[in-house]
Design a protein that fits this description.
Radius of gyration: 23 Å
Largest sheet: 5 strands, antiparallel
Order of helices and strands: EEEEHEEEEEEHHHHHHHHHH
Distance between the termini: 43 Å
Strand order of the largest sheet: 1-4-9-6-7
Shape: elongated
Number of strands: 10
Number of helices: 11
Structural class: alpha+beta
CATH superfamily of one domain: Jelly Rolls
Length: 294
């Protein structure tokens, strides 16, 4: 997408020499949206008229800086980004970037028609635009962090709904006065809460009250966020803990009692009952069956 200019010492700035370019990139698709996570060392690049001519579709990119320092230039405006900063740039106009130190960044690439189709609104980025630290933007950043972990596990049929929620929240981040569809907001809130649950599965304080407080919502709103999908909050926590317990059973020599205790089940009997209800077999039978297959 970008022309690399610093590989093997070649630089966009002739009076300076830079080290060999190194980096890694992961791209995930959310229907027609592209979510890219990137890590790279110092480098520089340019989208010139040559690259523009090779680009068939017009899109905008929302770049979230997660670590390091970089600059992006478009429309004669240069934005300096450090951790927590956000910039928006357009594919249809020349642009330059320079990375001054190792960076971690996340970018969402959105086709221009995708923004325009939401309720007929024009989702406007106009070159380099640093977004202020609004609550809507913070929510959008947390939402992207949550779904980047879940996209690989989603069925294809779920991607259009995730895509629409992403667009609604993006428009809300662009314009504070943009109304966000309540169903999309609920889906986004659930994704963020599920990520929180995954990080705290080992805690014995993973209660509805604690989760609600951590996300500034009432317990009633929290419960409704999950019940609207036909699954209660306790169902989600139990399912997540069973999945982690299953991994422990397969990966180690832990006793069933130890695994049950670690993942918050009252005792081995209760754990075995819940495991069998979910997986159709007991933990011991499951491990024996998987061992025979190896």
């Amino acid at each position: 997408m970008y022309q690399r200019l610093t590989c093997r010492g070649k630089s966009a700035y002739p009076h300076k020499r830079t080290p060999l370019y190194e980096g890694s990139l992961r791209r995930q698709w959310i229907d027609d949206l592209s979510l890219v996570d990137c890590r790279c060392g110092p480098c520089a690049g340019r989208r010139s008229n040559t690259e523009l001519a090779r680009t068939q579709d017009e899109y905008i990119s929302v770049l979230i800086s997660m670590a390091g320092k970089q600059t992006v230039t478009q429309n004669d405006t240069t934005a300096t980004l450090q951790s927590g900063d956000v910039v928006v740039w357009e594919s249809a106009k020349p642009a330059e970037f320079r990375i001054w130190e190792p960076v971690v960044k996340r970018s969402l690439f959105v086709p221009r028609p995708a923004l325009q189709e939401i309720s007929g609104r024009h989702g406007g980025a106009n070159g380099v635009t640093l977004q202020s630290g609004t609550a809507a933007l913070r929510f959008f950043i947390d939402y992207l962090a949550a779904i980047t972990c879940t996209i690989p596990h989603l069925p294809l049929s779920a991607l259009p709904a995730v895509r629409n929620a992403t667009l609604e929240l993006l428009l809300g981040a662009f314009r504070a006065d943009t109304p966000i569809d309540s169903a999309d907001l609920t889906a986004a809130r659930r994704a963020i809460i599920e990520r929180y649950i995954d990080r705290h599965l080992l805690s014995d304080q993973l209660t509805p009250s604690a989760i609600a407080t951590a996300h500034n919502v009432s317990v009633r709103t929290l419960q409704r966020t999950f019940s609207d999908t036909g699954e209660s909050l306790s169902d989600v926590i139990r399912r997540r803990r069973l999945a982690r317990a299953r991994e422990d059973i397969l990966s180690g020599d832990h006793t069933i009692s130890l695994v049950a205790h670690r993942w918050g089940f009252a005792d081995a009997s209760h754990f075995t009952k819940a495991f069998k209800a979910h997986y159709g077999t007991t933990p011991r039978e499951y491990k024996q069956g998987m061992t025979r297959q190896l």
